[in-house]
Amino acid sequence: MIKRVLNQIKSLVTYDADREFYAKVFPDTLNQVELMRFRKMSKADLPRVLEIEAKGYNYPWAEGLFHDCLNAAHYDCWVGEDATDKIRAFCIVSTAVGEATVLNLCIDPVMRQQGLGRKFMQHIIDTAKAKKAESVFLEVRPSNTGAIALYESLEFNEIGIRPGYYKTENGEREDAIMMAYTII
Ligand SMILES: CC(C)(COP(=O)(O)OP(=O)(O)OC[C@H]1O[C@@H](n2cnc3c(N)ncnc32)[C@H](O)[C@@H]1OP(=O)(O)O)[C@@H](O)C(=O)NCCC(=O)NCCS
């Protein structure tokens, strides 16, 4: 029982000694993205996560959906914190039967196009590998060319289309491109 509680606490705080050291002793030698730390999301993080979500999408997830993800056993909800411990990004991944699926990845607009999305996705791939997943899946709007460029640069491949999957502002529907990254 005690061991389980200790492991739960450990999984909430991924301690990164190098980051702590460099942030304190040589704060100017690393950029913001290099100093970013990923840790598990908690309910207390939701106000900030919802803020980033609202800036990221025309159709943001409702708060209840985040609660469902936090409560689901096979979901990993991550946040990325900068050197001041401010949340700058989050990602939600479900892993089951050897497949990791990225359900949401969102970066604070002020931190975009600096490499944080790439670093977060690499963290997700590394975590999926550690969990012995064989593939990482995701879905993306064809109009989200920045996200598609990011996934392609990480060697995700298009594997199919879900017709009319997403709502659009003009009341029409937009397809989802399904992409996959093969681990083994
Ligand atoms: C898509 C998103 C996650 C990218 O995150 P990011 O931190 O800006 O991405 P990075 O800086 O790591 O970019 C990595 C690569 O992605 C591509 N890329 C990212 N944003 C881009 C943009 N706006 N236009 C073109 N290419 C882009 C580039 O190939 C880039 O490589 P480069 O820097 O060598 O050119 C971010 O824009 C975001 O959170 N958007 C809102 C939410 C969203 O759409 N999430 C994805 C849902 S599927």
Please name the CATH topology.
Answer: Aminopeptidase
**Average pLDDT reading:** 91
Shape: globular
Query: In the CATH hierarchy, what is the superfamily?
Result: Gcn5-related N-acetyltransferase (GNAT)
Proportion of residues in β-strands: 25-35%
Instruction: Give the class from helix and strand content and strand pairing.
Output: alpha+beta
Count of discrete domains? 1
* Lateral strand order in the biggest sheet: 1-2-3-4-5-7-6
Helical amount: 25-40%
Total strands: the figure is 7
Q: Ions, cofactors, ligands: which are bound?
A: coenzyme A
Q: What is the terminal-to-terminal distance? A: 35 Å
Q: Give the low-pLDDT segments.
A: none
H/E element sequence: HHEHHEEEHEHEE
Our count of helices gives 6
Radius of gyration, rounded?
17 Å
Explain this structure:
The protein is built from six helices and seven strands, in the order ααβααβββαβαββ. It is an alpha+beta fold. It has a single domain, classed as Gcn5-related N-acetyltransferase (GNAT) (Aminopeptidase). It has a seven-stranded mixed beta sheet, with helices on both faces. The site of coenzyme A has 18 residues, from β4, α5 and α6.
Tag the structure with descriptive keywords.
binds coenzyme A, alpha+beta, seven-stranded mixed beta sheet, Aminopeptidase, 184 residues
Write the SSE topology.
Layout (H helix, E strand, L loop, with lengths): L1 H11 L4 H9 L11 E4 L5 H11 L6 H9 L3 E7 L5 E10 L2 E9 L8 H15 L4 E6 L4 H9 L3 E11 L5 E10 L2
Parallel strand pairs: 4-5
Antiparallel strand pairs: 1-2, 2-3, 3-4, 5-7, 6-7
